[in-house]
Design brief:
This protein is α/β, with parallel strands linked by helices and about 325 residues long. It has 2 domains: about 15-75 and about 170-325, Rossmann fold (3-Layer(aba) Sandwich); about 75-165, Rossmann fold (3-Layer(aba) Sandwich). It has 14 helices and 12 strands. It has helices spanning about 1-10, 25-35, 50-55, 75-85, 85-90, 100-115, 125-135, 145-160, 170-190, 205-215, 230-240, 260-270, 280-290, 300-310; strands spanning about 15, 20-25, 45, 60-65, 95, 115-120, 140-145, 165, 195-200, 220-225, 270-275, 320-325. A 6-stranded mixed sheet has the order 3-4-12-9-10-11, with helices on both faces. The chain has a 4-stranded parallel sheet with strand order 7-6-5-8, sandwiched between helices. Helix 4 (about 75-85) runs parallel beside helix 6, helix 4 packs across helix 9 (about 170-190) and helix 9 packs across helix 10 (about 205-215). It is globular and about 55 Å long. The N and C termini lie far apart (about 40 Å).
Length: about 325
């Protein structure tokens, strides 16, 4: 499956990783994605909080992708990938594996293109995300909550349906689509000096870093990750792709590991990666709910927690942007109950 996927992709920039030559997306790819999906996605707002500024000693700008269609930034990449497909590649529909937000995004994008969507979801995915995927008309196949189970189940689905696999993050079209959020941010707030983004599979962090590097190279893009699911941090530190071993973090959107393509993007463009504890994540999530009156997922509370707990160096007096990645929360299982 992965070999077929890499062989099928067409890229622009070559990056040698072991025996595989990858092509990294560029700012031009992100700009083309923005043009392709402009009519389908929301240009999300940027919110401020005086209390957050006072607490952190910097000017914080929240790019609110929790107000995006399907409630998450994932619709940007999914719509770019689906809308890029040829008639031949889309005739049997699309397939993917995801714990929720990417699943919803692919389901909606496929519905808009009037093609089937086949989604493999771990059994422990939040119920709110399962219901949303079904609500968009996708056919769901559940699997054990491991990366191996996801991939093996997905391979069977693709074989049985003839659908086209769209990887949740290790796909240049996905990365380019996710990068449109940072593109908008820097267009609207060109004085941004630091951007914080959560890191799971690395699609958002990759797209964000590529957009920032292309538009304003002096901007630092910093990835933020749970301490107990720190494969990206270890990969970045060691220079070798590390597997994801812990899937129990409260930040359910960050339970996947990096792909070879996203790892290469982060190595080239990301400034650094920091980690935060589970307690810090939950505390930051609740603070934003209570003080800003907006719903955010635990995954996008990770960069907030990094800022709140002094994990980011040299931020005093700076313009710091945080990408709030989503707001799809299971209200029956809040992490502070």
């Amino acid at each position: 499956m992965l070999i077929d996927y890499h062989a099928k992709c067409i890229f622009n920039f070559k990056y040698q990783s072991g025996n595989i030559t990858l092509n990294l997306p560029t700012l031009s790819d992100i700009q083309q994605a923005e043009s392709r999906i402009r009519e389908a996605v929301h240009r999300t707002p940027v919110l401020r909080s005086r209390q957050v500024d006072e607490r952190t000693g910097c000017r914080v700008y929240f790019k609110c992708e929790n107000f995006q269609r399907v409630g998450a930034f994932k619709f940007r990449g999914a719509s770019n990938a689906v809308f890029s497909l040829s008639e031949e590649d889309s005739k049997n529909g699309v397939a993917t594996h995801s714990s929720g937000n990417h699943a919803q995004a692919i389901a909606l994008a496929a519905k808009m293109k009037n093609i089937p969507a086949y989604i493999v979801m771990p059994e422990n995915s939040p119920e709110v995300k399962k219901r949303a995927v079904a609500g968009y008309g996708a056919e769901i196949t559940f699997c054990e909550p491991t990366q191996q189970a996801r991939e093996e189940t997905l391979e069977k689905v693709v074989e049985n349906t003839g659908s086209t696999f769209i990887h949740p993050y290790n796909d240049p079209r996905i990365i380019a689509g996710q990068g449109t959020s940072a593109l908008e941010l820097l267009q609207d707030y060109p004085d941004t000096e630091i951007i914080l983004a959560p890191v799971g599979g690395g699609g958002l962090a990759s797209g964000t870093a590529i957009a920032a590097c292309g538009m304003k190279p002096e901007v630092k893009v910093i990835g933020c990750e749970p301490e107990i699911a720190d494969d990206a941090y270890l990969s970045f530190k060691t220079g070798e792709l590390q597997p994801s071993k812990n899937t129990q973090t409260v930040a359910d959107g960050l339970r996947t590991g990096l792909g070879e393509l996203t790892f290469a993007c982060l190595q080239k463009h990301l400034h650094s990666i920091v980690t935060v504890s589970e307690e810090e994540i939950v505390s930051a999530m609740r603070y934003i709910w209570e003080r800003m009156n907006i719903i955010i997922e635990a995954s996008c509370a990770v960069p907030v927690a990094a800022l709140f707990n002094d994990k980011i160096e040299d931020v005093k007096g700076k313009n710091v942007a945080i990408i709030i990645t989503g707001g799809n929360v299971d209200l029956d299982h809040l992490p502070w109950e």
